[in-house]
């Protein structure tokens, strides 16, 4: 794989990159002598905007900002360094990556404060949008961010609808309000404030800076949070939000905040920003949800009083805050689930589906983008690469095939057809599936195992959940079976399969697989529950009729024996497998897809390999 050298990365500076360095003065700080988050948000937004405008060559406005987690506070006298660069340009919008770090001038230490992704859209004085030229990533880091930006964009565009769906379709059971005498009436935390938008709050096109609005929102949210705890709270997280409509110089911005719910050590404050001019009706500009906590003098989180919500809207927001908290916690868990940690599987449920799907595809794209893959062996242009990490072995099998990328994707994404080329499945018996005799087992020693593979759920057009049963490696397939799997026990996997078509030409088609847990499908006696952290296909269009297929797997102990003889050079079964795959793709390249795509009734199987 041709990848830019690290040296190139060191010398090169992204032309859209901008950097702001600012010493924190008392006028930027709150009562704890820490940089006010509102001030930081203004700096982040203006730095990111300059980066976006550098690429666009015209004025830009903030469309949205993804979740921000503040990992540290910054004290007076310390230096804030904000770096922003455009990760990807789409049509009229761009994703800008922002990294905030802090420097202590006395010790010379640096640390990361937060990372954020903001989307900017072009805006001409005429109000017209401008089509952006594409941004070509140069370094490996840029290529990864360019690729992941498409995935993040998908997430943020559907974010509002997904949240609305989850909250309105009763994906969460309503929780009873815990009545205690000490509960603080939510009404007591209600804040309202009005701001007149003046020229210093806006750019030269008179559009109000998004960062300024965020700072005003943070101000009212902090007041609401302080009213609950009678202390100075610390802002930990701002959920992803979207600027629904523009605001201009001369607008009156009305900001309203209230504590929606208080948990043991954290509270959710909701803020709403609306604008008006003269007699005009209010225009909804933005709504945000912020999580605050209170720390004592030793830095320990303080227990917060309960909240007594107001009826109707207050009660609804109280329930919705619980649901959002669960979503936040699930996401934290998904991110924290690392390689080689047990369990590899994360719980799947409808409330974390979108994020898990994003995570599934992102993990595969990041694995594919690694530049330390080592070529292990090559046979007739089918190459086996390996990637050794502490406790996990990754492998990649790559080959080209004379089939259109879209068609190859269609064929490989239809997991029910894998039996047509993957010999590891020839021993499984599938109801309704006619595998031609000449394609059946080529005299292996393994005995036939009843394989049961089911499509558990087609979640949406891109995602499906499968239970996959594979023969145990202990049954004679390979000699070095892992001792952890008892003799004769068959393995099963609960897999989330996420598929993506390219966002733009140059992007690959992706089929990502990872293990999840489902309460409806616990592990059962007689089956060893296998786990896959990250596996799947990435399909690149080489030319109109040629695609490059890359198959990846971060091998867990259950999977390793399938490939270890190949890696050790003792066999080349990977080669025959993927030759069979190539033949399968070739033979079916022109045919319409006859099997039903993700049909719940058709037998579906896949393999961790
Ligand atoms: N997050 C990020 N980008 C989003 C988005 C979201 N939630 N929703 C839409 N977009 C992107 C679209 O993907 C599209 O990008 P593309 O052209 O690269 O594909 C772009 O915004 C325009 O989308 P479109 O559907 O044509 O426009 P829209 O009518 O939904 O308007 C805004 C989107 C952002 C332009 C509009 O809501 C707006 O003007 N908001 C105010 C922005 C502003 O003034 N901010 C400063 C502070 S007030
Ligand atoms: P929702 O009511 O669905 O949460 P809104 O956009 O109306 O969405 O409001 C976002 C948040 O702003 C609310 O959750 C609430 O915390 C806060 N908020 C809205 N209206 C008011 C208000 N009149 N007074 C105080 N806070 C408000």
From TrEMBL:
Ranges where the HotDog ACOT-type domain occurs? 14-126, 187-298
- The source's superkingdom equals Eukaryota
The record's Pfam families line, in alphabetical order, gives:
4HBT, START
> What Gene3D superfamilies does this protein map onto?
3.30.530.20, Hotdog Thioesterase
| GO CC, one annotated term | cytoplasm
The segment(s) forming the START domain are: 373-578
GO BP field: fatty acid metabolic process
A GO MF annotation of the entry reads: carboxylic ester hydrolase activity
Catalytic function, reaction form: butanoyl-CoA + H2O = butanoate + CoA + H(+)
Localization per record: Cytoplasm
UniProt keyword terms in alphabetical order: Cytoplasm, Fatty acid metabolism, Hydrolase, Lipid metabolism, Repeat, Serine esterase
PROSITE patterns tied to this protein: HOTDOG_ACOT, START
Functional pathway: Lipid metabolism; fatty acid metabolism
Name under which the protein is recorded: Uncharacterized protein
Organism source for this protein?
Answer: Umbra pygmaea
Lineage, uppermost ranks: Eukaryota, Metazoa, Chordata, Craniata, Vertebrata
